[in-house]
Amino acid sequence: MVKVKFLGHAAFLIEGSKKILIDPFLTGNPKAAVKPEDVEADLILITHAHGDHIGDAAEIARRTGAKIVAMYDIANYLVESEGGITTIGMNYGPTEVDGVKIVQVPAWHSSSDGKYGIGNAAGYIIKLDEKTIYHAGDTFVFRDMELFAELYGPIDVALLPIGGHFTMGIREAAKAVEFLKPRKVVPMHYNTWPPISADPEEFRKLVGDKAEVVVLEPGETLEL
């Protein structure tokens, strides 16, 4: 069994034979379900260099020994700026880390540390214990998502932003569901702050029968 736990904003913990933490923005996150010191991980995946996605990655990696997987430029930046961590820098394409198959895929978004642009934004397709999870990162909808479904599907669950302003809104995310054809979809990156306010029930209605929409509150878990 694979468990997908929503930690708030765009942070998730995927638990199976490995524990995979994605975009662990916990400190300063008003919706965070846990504290950084309470999280265990084998791998930490970072979609891009904005603070609400890198978050507490380095701190958690130092404490747990987790390997950080990120765009090559971001991985190098973290080693130079943080130290005491192990990173695996990659670029768009497939790899395998400690038995976990990972595909880093494009995302339409900026990437920086607040001052300098670092790398490119990405999403991840993860295959763990015969389950396939797509974390879109921060992105707008784009038709290449159809290719993700063709190459790596069927996707068991897609984790998609719906908050708008910085990412897809509800309408665009519903179109992404059409392209990706996931069995289930979990909305994320909404209602953390006023600019990204969105109603997940509106998203559910727009998706209709194209996929099962599972709305998770921070701290709740979806079992696959």
TrEMBL record:
The record's listing under InterPro entries reads:
Metallo-B-lactamas, RibonucZ/Hydroxyglut_hydro, UPF0173, UPF0173_UPF0282_UlaG_hydrolase
Q: Which residues form the Metallo-beta-lactamase domain?
A: 8-189
> Is Repressor there in the keyword field?
no
Name one molecular function that GO assigns to this entry: hydrolase activity
Query: Into which family does the record put it?
Result: Belongs to the UPF0173 family.
What protein am I looking at? Answer: UPF0173 metal-dependent hydrolase A3L01_07170
HAMAP family for the chain: UPF0173
Do you know which Pfam families this protein is assigned to? Answer: Lactamase_B_3
Alphabetized, the UniProt keywords read: Hydrolase
* NCBIfam families in alphabetical order: PRK00685.1
| Originating organism | Thermococcus barossii
